[in-house]
TrEMBL record:
<feature type="domain" description="N-sulphoglucosamine sulphohydrolase C-terminal">
    <location>
        <begin position="422"/>
        <end position="468"/>
    </location>
</feature>
<dbReference type="GO" id="GO:0016250">
    <property type="term" value="F:N-sulfoglucosamine sulfohydrolase activity"/>
</dbReference>
<dbReference type="Pfam" id="PF16347">
    <property type="entry name" value="SGSH_C"/>
</dbReference>
<keyword id="KW-0325">Glycoprotein</keyword>
<dbReference type="InterPro" id="IPR017850">
    <property type="entry name" value="Alkaline_phosphatase_core_sf"/>
</dbReference>
<keyword id="KW-0732">Signal</keyword>
<dbReference type="InterPro" id="IPR032506">
    <property type="entry name" value="SGSH_C"/>
</dbReference>
<dbReference type="GO" id="GO:0030200">
    <property type="term" value="P:heparan sulfate proteoglycan catabolic process"/>
</dbReference>
<feature type="domain" description="Sulfatase N-terminal">
    <location>
        <begin position="22"/>
        <end position="329"/>
    </location>
</feature>
<dbReference type="Pfam" id="PF00884">
    <property type="entry name" value="Sulfatase"/>
</dbReference>
<dbReference type="InterPro" id="IPR000917">
    <property type="entry name" value="Sulfatase_N"/>
</dbReference>
<dbReference type="GO" id="GO:0006027">
    <property type="term" value="P:glycosaminoglycan catabolic process"/>
</dbReference>
<comment type="similarity">
    <text>Belongs to the sulfatase family.</text>
</comment>
<protein>
    <recommendedName>
        <fullName>Sulfatase N-terminal domain-containing protein</fullName>
    </recommendedName>
</protein>
<keyword id="KW-0378">Hydrolase</keyword>
<dbReference type="InterPro" id="IPR024607">
    <property type="entry name" value="Sulfatase_CS"/>
</dbReference>
Amino acid sequence: MSWHTELLLSLVLLSSVPSEAKNVLLLLADDGGFEMGAYRNRIVQTPFLDALAKESLIFNNAYASVSSCSPSRASILTGMPEHQNGQYGLHNGVHNFNSLPKVHSISSVLGKAGIRTGLIGKKHVGPDETYKFDYERTEEQYPINQVGRNITQIKLFVREFLQQTKSTSNGPFFLMVSFHDPHRCGHVTPQYGSFCERWGSGEEGMGLIPDWHPIYYVWDEIDLPYYVPDTQPARYDLAAQYTTISRLDQGVGLVLKELRDAGLEDDTLVVYTSDNGPPMPAARTNLYDPGMAEPMFIRSPEKGVRRNEVTYSMTSHLDLVPTILEWFNLTHPQPTTLTGRSLLPLLFQEPSNQPDDAVFASQSFHEITMAYPMRAIRTKRYKLIHNLNYQLPFPIDQDFYVSPTFQDILNRTLANQPVPWYKTLRTYYHRPEWELYDLKMDPTESRNLFGKSSMKDTFQQLSERLQKWLEVTKDPFRCAPDGVLQDTGAYLNIPTCLPLGH
């Protein structure tokens, strides 16, 4: 974004920030994509998300800055990419990744300003002192399914938080409700189904979630997205995912009803998005669009805002912290560390002259064994991906590996049988160092244009913009794979890329 554009945005902000900003409710799906009517999926039933969309500004170019659970949550909560906040991979278990000690999360900034903070559901980031909330009901105190999938329990936790807020301070609050649907669970608890679609359904031995009315889908009637192979196992897999998306949708409806019943709907900014793309091939853990393109709605209680309208402005999860800070009329303790921008002006009007805006993405790990750093820049027309460890095969995470979709791809490949998929397993594993796509002509990112003489200038421009962002955000990988990051001298202390002579 140009300096001229930033100045214009700052002027608009003077009139777009509410004078008495009250509350923020952030609703986060876990591995959710565009499986809802609001994004023209005609099969899955999501009446509550669709109703929220009609009251909101709908973002058609919203992107995660990383396609991995913990790193994405840390980026959402800090406004910094994973290589800047230090949450390179998954937080829990043997992975043991944590953000850097001096990082400021939105919960800590708001807490110091006297704003009550709460987190219900999946947390999956650390350390605790960085991501401390006044009210926490997460997997650190309860089983993950109870706080992330049991929508009746989530409803009661939301009610408790709102009642406590009213009885103690009656002041502003920030509440994050972090659902665990539609994340896979087949690798941990296969008896509940590949997406825990049986858990709480009322089936024998599955328990019962009182507020959930399960919806089941016919596998051969589903419209497959282009990145999912057209096989029976993949269709069964997607049907199971849709059932849990309907559970997520009903949970969103319960949370919004609690907000309304508490008399707080007219004082609360509501944001809905997902941490990353679905756990399908070319999606989660990838920087292709199925992995980083996200649904996003923002509903503002302010008068004159856009409702049931679409914005095509390039938007990043890194924009959420600046947006929340503007809403509360606060500044970040380290403003120079943020590269995002407030989205509040977009709630009132679409910029008349949009620059060649871009979003950036950075991924280094997912699980501890998945060292495959990638950096990317995406404009409305082009995407450039830099695969730093391109000489290694692309890694597969545990829960996707055991999924019916991947096992079918793997078994067909090993048996030399055709796979009705837009890729082969070999091309999926083995990627070039640079991938350049013209998304207008090639929305499925199937034709790599890197090395084409006609794309030389485009590659130069995109790679320079990407490198500049990596330098601004102090990416320790910014010299890889052909150089080593060094200080040029003890007195100058200017980081420099020194060549390896490959």
